[in-house]
Design a protein that fits this description.
two-stranded antiparallel sheet, about 210 residues, single chain, six-stranded mixed sheet, tt1808, chain A, alpha+beta
């Protein structure tokens, strides 16, 4: 699922409206601390660029709410269910729709979760599908997020990406030096997606529950 440098990323054109130069994660964090960016600014940092978050519609909201409910009901000791909270990655500060992060209710009281904290990251996609299937696979693979789901409301399936390459795949591998996930499995309507944490299946989510 890597993208070529000729076509990536999908967000740079809109990002030009917001930044004169690419920002580091620390610079973005400072803008948030100083109040230059607030909760009313519907943006996130992706690979150094401040970009608009996509508008949210009822099917998106419903899928997020249902997934949170199902994951909470699984009662996963040692894992926090998070929704649209900041992830502190190497080059980005995405705000995934749903995530499972290792910790308890106090772990992230004073910091954002970092790559090693995440077991699962989920983006619910309709207008954001191209960004989530291509740009964010690269972003999450770069920081070795082990499991990444795209809840694809357009094609009515859940796409599960696993086995990230990290920042420096071996020469000659698919995608060259582009971070990507080596494995992808799609779960259509009528099937169930396994929830895998640290290599162990801890439950399943019915795809039909997430679809409008």
């Amino acid at each position: 699922m890597a993208t070529s440098t000729a076509t990536r990323p999908h967000f740079k054109a809109e990002a030009a409206l917001h930044t004169l130069h690419a920002l580091t994660g620390d610079e973005y964090d400072e803008m948030v601390r100083d109040g230059a960016l607030g909760e009313e600014d519907k943006v996130e940092l992706l690979e150094g660029y401040v970009v608009f978050k996509m508008a949210i519609n009822p099917p998106h909201d419903n899928a997020v709410a249902v997934l949170i409910e199902v994951l909470v009901r699984m009662n996963l000791p040692g894992w926090m269910v998070r929704s649209q909270g900041t992830a502190k990655l190497t080059e980005s500060r995405p705000e995934p729709d749903v995530a499972l992060a290792r910790g308890d209710r106090r772990t992230f009281a004073n910091r954002h979760p970092e790559p090693a904290d995440f077991g699962l990251v989920v983006e619910v996609s309709e207008p954001s599908l191209a960004r989530d299937e291509q740009d964010k696979t690269r972003i999450y693979a770069r920081d070795l997020i082990p499991v990444y789901w795209v809840v694809n409301l357009v094609d009515r399936r859940v796409e599960v990406f696993t086995d990230p390459t990290g920042p420096d795949p071996a020469a000659g591998s698919p995608g060259g030096d582009e971070p990507h996930y080596r494995a992808r499995q799609d779960y259509p309507a009528g099937t169930a997606v396994p929830v895998v944490l640290d290599g162990t299946t801890v439950g399943t989510v019915a795809v039909d529950e997430l679809l409008p």
